[in-house]
């Protein structure tokens, strides 16, 4: 498994834990980094993904609600919700990840950690988002203050 995939898996595990518990992001990342013996490069990428998702959580959730109206975000599985958050962050806000890579990685995470229907859901939602937004990515200055306000520090 490549470093960036390990980083995504770690980020997903942390976001899952944060969604289900009241644990702190910084402590959870430190614990998992030690348990997994993550190299610094993977640790940095995980931290970047986690921070990006947490800073933009409300914006990401609004996008999920728009593109998956048949699946209320509150009723969506925690894994699917966080895979979508990660992938949408990478597609729309992170200029370092090609769109096809972000989608492929999200589908692979869904296959590994989600239900049998997760890969199809993830691929469909992300495909709709890419069709809507095209190849252009949103810039961080377009984010709402509401998203920035609710960031959990790392």
Describe the protein:
- This protein is an all-alpha fold and 154 residues long.
- The longest helix is centred in the first third of the chain and has 18 residues, at 3-20.
- It has one domain (3-149): N-utilizing Substance Protein B Homolog, Chain A (Orthogonal Bundle).
- The protein contains eight helices and no strands.
- Residues 137-154 have low confidence and may be disordered.
Helix-strand blueprint:
Blueprint: H1 3-20, H2 25-36, H3 40-55, H4 57-67, H5 78-93, H6 99-113, H7 118-133, H8 145-149
Helix pairs in contact: 1-2, 1-3, 1-5, 3-5, 4-5, 5-6, 5-7, 6-7
Summarize the structure.
With about 150 residues, this protein is mainly alpha-helical. Helices cover about 70% and strands about 0% of the residues. It starts with a helix and ends in a 5-residue tail after the last helix.
- The number of helical segments is 8
Which regions are unreliable across 5 or more consecutive residues at pLDDT < 50?
A: 137-154
SSE order, one letter for each helix or strand? HHHHHHHH
CATH class: Mainly Alpha
What are the defining features of this structure?
N-utilizing Substance Protein B Homolog, Chain A; 8 helices; 71% helix; mainly alpha; disordered C terminus; 154 residues; 0% strand
């Amino acid at each position: 498994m490549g470093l960036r995939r390990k980083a995504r898996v770690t980020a997903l595990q942390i976001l899952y834990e944060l969604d289900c518990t009241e644990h702190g992001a910084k402590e959870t990342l430190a614990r998992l980094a030690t348990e997994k013996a993550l190299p610094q490069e993977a640790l940095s990428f995980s931290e970047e993904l986690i921070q990006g998702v947490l800073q933009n959580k409300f914006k990401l959730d609004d996008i999920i609600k728009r593109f998956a109206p048949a699946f209320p975000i509150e009723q969506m599985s925690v894994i699917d919700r966080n895979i979508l958050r990660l992938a949408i962050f990478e597609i729309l806000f992170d200029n370092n990840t090609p769109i096809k890579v972000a989608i492929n990685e999200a589908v692979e995470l869904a296959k590994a950690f989600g239900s049998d229907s997760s890969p199809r859901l993830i691929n469909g939602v992300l495909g709709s988002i890419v069709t809507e937004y095209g190849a252009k990515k949103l810039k961080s200055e377009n984010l709402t203050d509401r998203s920035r306000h609710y960031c959990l520090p790392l």
